[in-house]
Amino acid sequence: MSIAKNYIYNVTYQIVILIIPLVTVPYVSRVLGSNGVGINAYTNSIIQYFILFGTIGISLYANRAIAYVRDNKEALSRTFWGIVVLKFITTCLAYVVFLVFLALTGAYHNIFLIQSILIISAALDVSWLYMGLEDFKKTVTRNLIVRLIGVTSIFVFVKSASDLWKYVLILALSELFGQLTLWAYLPKTVNRIRLKWIDVRKHFMPAVYLFVPQIAVQIYVVLNKTMLGSLSNTNEVGFFDNSDKIVKMVLAVATALGVVMLPRVSNTFARGDMDKVKDYLYRSFDFVTFLSVPMAFGLAGIASTLTPWFFGPGFEKTGTLIAVISPIIVLIAWSGVIGQQYLMPIGNTRAYTISVSLGATVNFVLNLLLIRNYQSLGTALATLVAEASVTAVQLGYVAYSVKLKKLFASLWKYFVAGGLMYVIVRYLTSVLSIGLKMTVVEIVVGAFVYFSLLFLLKSEMNKRFFSTGWDLAKKIRNR
C-alpha cells in the first residue's frame, strides 16, 4: 500500500482514537463539569503508568521488528507470537501491581477499577502488527465502528455529574472492543506455531532498550496531569486536559506520517539503502512543516473564541492554554520525523533516549517550579519548553549526518505565510461574534490566506500537495 494511502488511513486512525473524548467534550464538559473531567483525566493518568510499565516499550519495538521480517511469513509468525506472549506476561504483572495500588488508595476507588480495563486492552493490542506490515486500513475500519458506538452511548447514558462512572466505562470498553476486533484478521495474517518455538527472551531486551525513551515520553505526556492533580486541583486538570485534547487532535494530522514511515524506513534500512532513508527524511520533514505551521498559528489564532462555545461556561482558561501550547504542534512534528523516521529505524536508540529523557527532566523540574504559582498555565509553559529541548537535541544529533540547511530550506516561506495568516485570523476574532459558524469562517479564511501566500512564494510542497489532491479527486470521480 502506498505511503499516501497509509498516511490518510493513519490520520483517520489517530483522529478515531481521539474522537470519543473530543467529539463529546462540549457535551461532557457541561454535564460533568470541570471537576468530573478532571477526575477522569487524573485517574486515567495514573492508569497510564501501569500500561507503560506493563508494555515496557514492546509496541514501539514490535512495529520495527515486524517491518524487518514482514517478507518471511514464518519469521513474521514467530516474531508476532513471541511478542504477544511477552506482552501478556508483563501486562499481567502490571495488573497485579495495580491491584496492590488499588488496595492501598482511598480516593476514586471505583473509577480506578473501571479505568483498569485499559490495562487489559493494552495487553490485547496487536495494532503494531498491521502497522509493521503497512496495512493501516484494518486498524481504521474496525476501530471506527466500535468508537462510533461508544460516542452514541455517551450521549444516551451520560446525563448528569453522577454518571461519571458510566462515561469512564464507555471509554474503557470502546478501547477494549476496538482491540479485540483486530484479532479477527490474525488467521489470515500469521501462522499458528508450536509453543516451544515461541522465544520470549529474544524480544525482551530490545523492548527494554526502547522502554527508557517511552518512560521519558510518558512523563511529560501523563505526568503533567498527575502533578497538576497533586499540586493544584482537579479543575485545573480539567482545563489543561481539554486544551491537550484539542492540540493532540490537530497534532495527529502532522504526526501520523511518523507511524506510517517507521516501518517503511526500517525496511529500507534493513536493505542497506541509506540514501533512500535520508531522502525520506528530507521529504517528510518538509511535508510536516508545511502542515504543522498553519495548524499551530491557526489554532493559536482561534483559541480565544473557540473555547466559549465549544466547552461551555467555566472553561475560558482553556483558550489561553491552547494558545500557549500550540507551538508544540510544530516541535513535535519535527521531533516525530527525526526520532521516529530516522533515529529509531536506523537503530540510534541512544540519541532518541537522551533527547526525550532531557525533555522529561525539563518538564518535571519546570512543573515543580511553576504549578504552585501558575497552576495549569505553568504546566503549559513547562510542556512547551520541554518539547523545544527534545527537538533541539535531536537536531544536534542529526546535524553531522544530514544537511540541516536542506531540512529547513522552505521554512521561511511557511512561517511568513503562517504569521500573516495568524494576524488576519486574530483580527477576525476581534470583529466577529463567537460561535461555530464564525469559527468555521475564521478557519476557511485562514487556510485560504496561507495557501495563497505559499502560491505567491512559489512553494514546491504547496504545488505537490494540491497536485496530489487533484489527482486523487479525479481517481475517485472516475470510479
Automatic annotation (TrEMBL):
<keyword id="KW-0472">Membrane</keyword>
<feature type="transmembrane region" description="Helical">
    <location>
        <begin position="351"/>
        <end position="371"/>
    </location>
</feature>
<feature type="transmembrane region" description="Helical">
    <location>
        <begin position="318"/>
        <end position="339"/>
    </location>
</feature>
<feature type="transmembrane region" description="Helical">
    <location>
        <begin position="79"/>
        <end position="105"/>
    </location>
</feature>
<keyword id="KW-1003">Cell membrane</keyword>
<dbReference type="InterPro" id="IPR002797">
    <property type="entry name" value="Polysacc_synth"/>
</dbReference>
<keyword id="KW-0812">Transmembrane</keyword>
<feature type="transmembrane region" description="Helical">
    <location>
        <begin position="47"/>
        <end position="67"/>
    </location>
</feature>
<protein>
    <recommendedName>
        <fullName>Flippase</fullName>
    </recommendedName>
</protein>
<keyword id="KW-1133">Transmembrane helix</keyword>
<feature type="transmembrane region" description="Helical">
    <location>
        <begin position="207"/>
        <end position="226"/>
    </location>
</feature>
<feature type="transmembrane region" description="Helical">
    <location>
        <begin position="111"/>
        <end position="132"/>
    </location>
</feature>
<feature type="transmembrane region" description="Helical">
    <location>
        <begin position="377"/>
        <end position="399"/>
    </location>
</feature>
<feature type="transmembrane region" description="Helical">
    <location>
        <begin position="167"/>
        <end position="186"/>
    </location>
</feature>
<dbReference type="GO" id="GO:0005886">
    <property type="term" value="C:plasma membrane"/>
</dbReference>
<feature type="transmembrane region" description="Helical">
    <location>
        <begin position="411"/>
        <end position="428"/>
    </location>
</feature>
<feature type="transmembrane region" description="Helical">
    <location>
        <begin position="287"/>
        <end position="312"/>
    </location>
</feature>
<feature type="transmembrane region" description="Helical">
    <location>
        <begin position="246"/>
        <end position="266"/>
    </location>
</feature>
<feature type="transmembrane region" description="Helical">
    <location>
        <begin position="434"/>
        <end position="457"/>
    </location>
</feature>
<feature type="transmembrane region" description="Helical">
    <location>
        <begin position="144"/>
        <end position="161"/>
    </location>
</feature>
<dbReference type="InterPro" id="IPR050833">
    <property type="entry name" value="Poly_Biosynth_Transport"/>
</dbReference>
<feature type="transmembrane region" description="Helical">
    <location>
        <begin position="7"/>
        <end position="27"/>
    </location>
</feature>
<dbReference type="Pfam" id="PF01943">
    <property type="entry name" value="Polysacc_synt"/>
</dbReference>
